[in-house]
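dumping these here so i dont lose them again. two proteins, back to back, each one seq then structure tokens. dont judge the mess
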Amino acid sequence: MEEGARSCLLQSRSSLEQDIRASYLMDHMISDGVLTGDEEDRIRSKPTRREQAAALLELLLRKDNQAYISFYNALVRESYGDLASLLHNSLPLVSPEAEKSFSDGGTRYVQAVLSEGGVPQRPVVFVSRPALMNRVREKLYRLQKEPGWVTVFGMAGSGKSVLAAEAVRDHALITECFPGGVHWLSIGQLDRSDLLVRIQSLCFRLEQQSQEKDPSSSLHRPPGSLEEAKERLRFLMLRRYPRSLLILDDIWDSSVLKAFDIQCRVLLTTRDRSLAECVSGPKSEVAVESGLEEGQALEILALYVNRKPQRLPEQARSIVRECKGSPLVVSLIGALLREFPDRWAYYLHTLQQKKFKRIRKSSSYDYDALDQAMAASIQVLSKEHRELYIDLTVLEKDVKVPAKVLSVLWDLEPEEVEDVLQDFVNKSLLFRDCHHRPYLYYLHDLQLDFLAEMNRSGLESLHTKVVRQYQQRYSQGPPTSGDEECLYWFRFLTYHMAKANLTQELYSLMFSLDWVRTKAQIMGPAHLINDYLEYSTILDKEVRGHFQEFLSLNGHQLEQRPFPDVVQLALSQPDSSEVYRQALLQAQERATRGGLYLDWVNKSSLKSLSRLVVQPHQGSIYSACFSHDGTKIASCGSSKTLRVFKSTSGEKLLEIQAHDDEVLCCAFSPDDRLLATCSSDRKVKVWNVERGTLMRMFEDEHEEQVNHCQFTNTRRRLLLATCSNDKFMNTKLWNINKPSSQNTMFGHLEPVNHCCFSPDDAYLSTSSSDGTLKLWEVSSANEWKSIDVADMFSEQREQTEVMVKCSTWSAGGRTIICAARNAVFVFDVETAAMLLEIRTSRLSTVQYCHACPSSNLVDMTSYKMADCSGHLSWVHGVQFSPDGSLLLSCSDDQTVRVWETNKVHTSSAVCLKRDSDVLFNNGDITVVAADNRNRLQVRNGRTGAVMFQSENQESRICCTAICSQTSAVGLGREDGTIQVLEMPSGTSLATLQGHTRAVLHCQFTPEGHTLITSSEDTTIRVWRWRTGECVVLEGHKEQVRCFSLLTTTPSSETHLLSWSFDGTIKVWDMSSGERLQDLVCHQGAVLACDVSPDGQLFATTSADKTAKVWSSASWECVRLLNGHQDCVRSCRFSWDGRRLATGDDNGEIRLWNVKDGTLLKICSRDNKDAMDSLHGGWVTDLHFSPDNTVLLSTGGYIKWWNVEKGEALQTFYPTGANLKRIHVSPDFSTFVTIDNIGILYILKKVE
């Protein structure tokens, strides 16, 4: 060995001895021929792991350069990358080019690329299949210039995964074709939530690697839906990792493959060669023979027994023939022969006997040979290890587990477990994924099939053992470390309970708010939602519905970081819900220990019930539509069926097995006699509704899945429009009486997701993944207009692609509405100008939009009219009935829901205006506010019930006020009129006129005789409202939005303090109207003002990003508070006058020392979500508790803060957003506010 290499080994000796596991490394070194079996036995005879490591290093120091290189390679393969780096610089040069190459044929660069991408290492015993490998590489070279698909297909156990990994282990291939890297993703048989988690983890891995290369790039929150995950992956593969290869191993289902149809380069392994037909782009395939050639199989056996193939006994060829060349079976027999090299004849005889008979047979695979090999391999295990191996029957296919999970199952120390697993790996009874530390272990699907058949009668007891061992180990609560073991239990504990038929334990677990909180925090809500669907037949329907509803309504919150308080979220559930019951008990218990929780006491006043719920299919429902007469509904989805039912009762009228793959859309003809369907199978079909017969099928023109279909709206000329994932010819018009399409629209270069005729059928709109909305003339098929919707997201366009999901025309056809990302845009058809933009939560994706045919709902409404809550999973489509009276929706929760339009948008959102007033009086709460029909409402604050409701006002109500001394309510209108009404009769007590423009604020004085109002007309008026006498305060140059009463001492006269957008504060004598002070306070508009409790000071905040503290005695500025980076929107003194809180438009709250103006705390700086402001919006209101220990703030949501620490104590998330102000009871126990969609919240502290 070279002196430099020897010296490096000696210097690194202590680190290597401490960390390495010699048994893992020696397999590789024996395979490389640098270590003998006798040397391995001597090292294994050492009693401890560290002594074995020391013995291996001692032996290595006596060997040559090749041994050093083999040891280095073994470290890399077994993921000891940190230790390998210690040896890297001293690698001996062994080739003329001085290239330090690996024994597996790749350079160090190749090894680094593949290791970073998660590509599995070459098996310890490996035989090359050059002809097959070259065919795969030849197909991969075709992806050099454009994206496409290479499918490697073959039977189970044929070596597809090893071949795929080996094909990319080539320096020239990677540098020439895939310089962006190679990224491996194991798939297997996944449900929707598992698939989402896999793509989330891939995106996270890619973002992490990108951030390491470019620190300026940022990590994003995990995508919350498959659509969002697909879009994120598309961006990463096309922008961050161009010309990279994505390897999808073991694909079973076309619906899973579609999630990766993102115009990138893909190599997939599968048993079904037709799977790639469902995706777009060039395709090629390589068939993998079911067995190895005889010479290759003999080479594997020779490697196991450490002989040359020519020196194998004559039984070797017979064994290969009996195995039919199966790599898996040959490996099992080879591992047996390595341990018992004299048993060639015995194992041949065992295979020939084929005593073990499997219950399920397959003509495409020699299960008998596998069974015999498995049975023989298990038989040579010690009795103790045999029993442990049988326990592996409980594992799910395609799931890798860490040793710590088996440590729990077997009640052994992790080191003991790893020794057992090493024995299984050595015998080819188990596989190890060395890309992870700690290592992950898994069984081949065929091995699991064998174990399942062998232990069929004992499966329930085996799963029971898993559950009992888990309960014993984690009796004090589930693991929360977030490591692989923790993730395994949260993903599969429910599976084991269900398989063990432990119904009661499953109830207790899944109906536990603690389990929901912990699992959502560690894994996100997708898995939880799926669990309730997966075990729906076992769980109690009513309670399951409670938890599903909770998750469906709060799933977007559970994706946020910092993670929200689940107990507080659950307190917003209906009082009858089991979720609420558990939350209330936990909140009450935590309140005794100082916890702060809020109960939404009036939530029962909100009603949002669907009129009809139908479950027409088993599986996700992708599309549903009304017939034109409104009497029928058609639906379709993943079940491949089409169903028609009555819209009034849900009674089934027709059910058709419509397509060979998922049915993506259905549409009625104008006369309701025909139904069109389109599918992932690339076919478009037209059906007779009355008979259920197929009238026409178009199957030759679309080469990719057809996403949407729609008939013309009128009967005068019946046409059908379809759109697809085709690259160029993706939008077509069909005359259903002709066998081929009438026209093809050319223009979109990416998939077209949706198409829609204008009301008069003159134009067709198309929505595409290329970020555009195009309008076409139907008569000529020419492009008329193109709107670049992606430009509306210019600030985010570089981060992810913009996909336009769908479009819909207004009733008159003058405007068109489209959905993209989290927004809905309204465009003028003639000018293509954007008229309106409606943004939903940044964490949401708008899947579909539809304009009401009979009103301006959706297309011209800039505020939310209704919140239709009820679906328990992702919603794919919505549609109004032709007369606009009904709304239907369809979802992944397998239901179609029908809603009454008028009821949901009048009751579900309550529709109160945010300008309100509240009276707290001896435990009673009275709320007064205007509603969306411009009526004054007075509500009981305990129940939310309406105590009084006025007639519609002639002019819009802008502000309200309650008189605390008399039963009177004041309201200010847009026309400048003020009215005072008696409660509860509604009798008009006074009508006050004088303002010439809108009244912005009104307030009764404490004794109730005086009403003060301010207006857009720049004046303030002081009314003796019973007599109509009025004092006018004039002087401001801009509108006066608010004012405050100022009393410097208890005995002094009360003055009026007013502020305005003109940047001034003015002090008035209310009796005479005299202006006492006129202070120019700020360079920008004054946005808020607050008077200290003793009246000696007042604070002002401004759009100039500053706050100031003023003296009421000298009228001078005593403190200038700088630091906010945005408009300072609100301020509040503490009750002891020692602190001042200020809040800005970026959501930041600052706490100041009033005495010297120093900054005490900045609230929420460390909790900023990268996709939102600090507070979900502007900080609009602030309140201190009477003891000055808690600060309350409003913005996009409501937060309570520990004043001393500046840390959040609790957050309440309203259904809407943009809270304007909040009313607080004197004892700081009750809080009242209204959100931007008009929902009233009366929150009471849980005690």
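---- next one ----
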Amino acid sequence: MGIFVISYSSINIWGALVSASSDETLHLWNLRQKRPAILHSLKFNRERITYCHLPFQSKWLYVGTERGNTHIVNIESFILSGYVIMWNKAIELSTKTHPGPVVHLSDSPRDEGKLLIGYENGTVVLWDLKSKRAELRVYYDEAIHSIDWHHEGKQFMCSHSDGSLTLWNLKSPSRPFQTTIPHGKSQRDGRKLESCKPILKAEYKTCRNSEPFIIFSGGLAYDKACRRPSLTIMHGKSITVLEMDHPIVEFLTLCETPYPNEFQEPYAVVVLLEKDLIVVDLTQSNFPIFENPYPMDIHESPVTCTAYFADCPPDLILVLYSIGVKHKKQGYSNKEWPVSGGTWNIGAQTYPEIIITGHADGSIKFWDASAITLQMLYKLKTSKVFEKQKIGDGKQTSEIVEEDPYAIQMIYWCPESRIFCVAGVSAYVIVYKFSRHEITTEIVSLEVRLQYDVEDIITPEPETIPPFPDPSSQLPSSKSLSGSTNTVASEGVTKDSIPCLSVKTRPVRMPPGYQAELVVQLVWVDGEPPQQITSLTVSSAYGIVAFGNCNGLAIVDFMQKTVLLSTGTIDLYRSSDPYQRQPRSPRKNKQFIADNFCMRGLSNFYPDLTKRIRTSYQSMTELAESPVPLELERCKSPTSDHVNGHCTSPTSQSCSSGKRLSSADVSKVNRWGPGRPPFRKAQSAACMEVSLPVTTEESRENSYNRSRSSSISSIDKESKEAITALYFMESFARKNDSTISPCLWVGTSLGMVLMISLNLPSTDEQRYTEPVLVSPSGTLLTLKGAVLTFSCMDRLGGLMHPPYEVWRDPNSLDDNEKGRKRKLVMNSPSTSQEMGDQQYAVVCSEKQAKVFSLPSQTCLYVHNITETSFILQADVVVMCNGACLACFCANGHIMIMSLPSLRPMLDVNYLPLTDMRIARTFCFTNEGQALYLVSPTEIQRLTYSQEMCDNLQDMLGELFTPVETPEAQNRGFLKGLFGGSGQTFDREELFGEASAGKASKSLAQHIPGSGGIEGVKGAAGGVMGDLARARIALDERGQRLGELEEKTAGMMTSAEAFSKHAHELMLKYKDKKWYQF
């Protein structure tokens, strides 16, 4: 409900915070420690808290309630005072209606003994705390939302529900002496202004040398219904409206003085939005905002994927920051960020860390995560590569890609070579190279066809074959692998060889930073839309990018801009295919059997008989505890939604076997229009869904051998073998090879590992002219579940990184840089004259991990990681100069295994998987760290390194930094005599237990907290507890002694100066007579 900062005298500095929560509880937080903790809590039992006010330099908190009563809380003991202002005594006895909840409380700047109480119905009462009676009452027709004093204490301003501001004078409370509707328009009669939206909060701040500032939120005219939330600043006759990107939660004006009875001199306004925090500079006429040093906009567009890189090259952060500064928005205030409380600690960490986030609008953000906070370094917009989608430019509306067609799906980054590659939801891949120089060039694009025309098996039992309808009743549309059946254009022409997006054909200006080198797009094939990309990898040393989906694999040479390989997964096996599959019979017009299945997209990443995750950009669900029926399993689609177990996707069909589609069903199927790509709005990485298989004993037994017997349902016959993992490495392409060569390792959703041999030209000159030869080697390794990751180790157990090219600027103006040859770092295994295996291959699937010895391909170690669950994320990371395998399981366990022995080192039940956002964004990195998106706006970093845990306390910052309270201005003799009450107001005497008594115990319950000294006192006794208490007390005593010493030194300096001036004055007038003065 609200947060109120406690400030105390310059000697007894509290460093605490009071918060009022929605469960009618007040909490007192201790901010003097690195981890804030609750000292006290006070829970109200009978009344709801509506407003709180803490006067400056006071320990008594005023609390207003929904019933209209005002209670007083002692902050030191956090106990209610017996002094209560009842609503029926505050209003006149003749009033017959309840005034409503308390919406405002504040003490008068002239007299601290006068409390201003505002009620919702428009009643304002000035209450005399000493005499316990109402000194003044004000009534207004419109409801009150907020009140603020003039610093002299003679006037106050109210904001109302009709968008008006009223100014009241204490000498004439019968009516306001000024009423304004800032955004109101004159009505036809010209007499009264039109009512506006409520002004939720208004602040009235005075200046010594200019007109006062009136700042308020809301109050816009009703005819501006589509207008964004705004903050209005009135200064003199000028009215400035600042429109916000998000709804306003609260705002606070920063002033030069904390004393309410002085000229406020405002200089900035802090505005808390629902998804941002901004500060407006009031010292400049155009009211610019301050540049925020903290990342408040990580969710500016929903995060769809993440990548985490620890111990990356140290110069990268400076390079990215220097480029990113040039791209920042202009028009910020030239002053420093005014909110300067607290201090940051860097800690003992010495290596740089970078986090990359991909977003739904196609943007990529690079963040510096080396310290506790995030700092955005550089932003890349991938959508600038494509033409903007416009309606009415010759295409049908139904053929245009829906919202968020540029959403980032996968990221691959090589920090050493600075090659960056992204895969988007519209089935495209962009390769970027980094340059410090701006260029204007055309973007090279390639189109790739990936088609899957193979039957999985040929030995089903007759009774398992679903009944097929007559050919005349079949729909004239081809099978869509993404769930869409609308594949035939309205003119009857099948879409073919058409990409989902259009790459710009004109020369494009590319600023310094990452510049597009090549765009590769998958195209429609015989009316089938391209499938989303499931795996991606790049080799800067080879100049090759490889990616795959549920149809097959594509390998592209981005140096020569040519396609090297585009083939279905089955073609990679050649004669070593473990399944007996036959090509489909030729056909001129493919037909879709709509009543047999609902085609699946990303759900084909994993086998049907294991648990799997599918991406859905439309809905977010939680893990189901019970198995999903087999019929529901058949409705998995990237565009399908499930509500209460029913498939509700507009592109999915009935899942009942043998049921024909009626004409009404056909019209429903085609309501999205013919040929529309099956992409939905990518709301965030949270839009994930878990699909659970039918858990049978038979499925467990057959999960390893993937037997395609007749016992498997007909749904399994249609499952695709997706490419789920790719990895470039210098390795042995075939069994018992004697020499290493460039290879591409390919992992599939059926647990198969294939190797593709790459034959590269020998020299740099030939690399740009001679073709690269690509050929499957036939090597075959098997695992349980879909393959997730690969890695290589040498014979000594050292991790072998993939080869890379040392970065050089491709657009450098230096002739020496241009003429420099490519410098490759190959990381090849150490050569040995001994015969035998020279290399270890580490392969991890969603069920198990294996270590193979190469080139003999002998399985040395195997570890079944899980039987009842499945692995979401696995990676080989470096930790303490050694390699280990890190896994995150769907049951919430984080497991670490040694390499190459696969010995379990850590198994922690960290986080049960209840949110699919975690599954989508979880990623490991070196030095024992990982991260995931814990909410749409927050990134959670975690560590399983003991060294990091030991240094974590030192890395935390200090929230509280003592600041000496500024001295109050000298009001002067005459102003003090005539300007107000000169008597001091003793709240302790008035609200203390001796005079006010005790409050009713049933009204509120005091709950002791566990933070600070109170927490130490409540802990178990002993030497450690005594030491902790002594340390806290010693720190506080030392701080107070330091402040006292500074004040003593200041007083001595002032005394010496006074003595010096007095002596000079005595010498000046020593010999003068009285009549000479």
